[in-house]
Amino acid sequence: MAKALETNFKRIETKYIVAKDQLKDLITDLKNYLVEDDYPTSTITNIYFDNQNFEVIKDSIAHNYNREKIRMRTYIANPQLDSKVFLEIKKKDSQGIGHKYRLVSNPLSVTKLVTQGIADKHISDPDLVEEIHSLRNRYKNLEPRMFIYYDRYSLKEKHTIKGYPYTKIRVTIDQNLTYRDNNVTMFDGNSGQPLLDDSHVVMEIKAPGEKPVWLQTVLDKYGIKECKFSKYSTAYHKSQGLPIEHTTIEPAFERI
Prior knowledge:
eight-stranded antiparallel barrel
């Protein structure tokens, strides 16, 4: 039986900038508790929707509303007009817990919904459509505004770990991050500017609650500290020539 598609997510995401020369040993230690995901390697292409003044990401940075982001995502290396894509709305509640809502469609139908407010026969989630209409009323003239691409390696928690409860931990490692704010389309390759220097990667831990002790112990072994890092926010700052600061969070765990 095929696995049911999840369309609503509620979790805490913590992010880390990790040196590449630590990766091999770090992954070895993580694999005492984690296994590779069903599809451990993937390419991820994102199109973030915003207006010309970047009001969506500016509100997110300022913690206005629910810090929404609107994006179209695909895991297909060379997407076509009829490729499977996800339209996703990401939010954070007052507790700092992330929520993600998504539907599956194709690039043309998703773009038409976000930019024109038109839901065709390939859009099947009325609640998410209503949410898009609300965002379109707040942010006028939404359009594809930022392209972000990266290669991802994914791990998930083993279902049974002796002495530890199963808590549905996922760890992802992203590298070769690229962005562009011109020619914002999925159909013209992954060219662009580097989002991060080549000696580092972005690691994310996704969990339904606080990190277990074993995971914090592994992070402490390598001196890896959580930081505030948003791919879209970083791409926005870089594209506009604005200063960027990836702030380390102390203590090591904080809901963001």
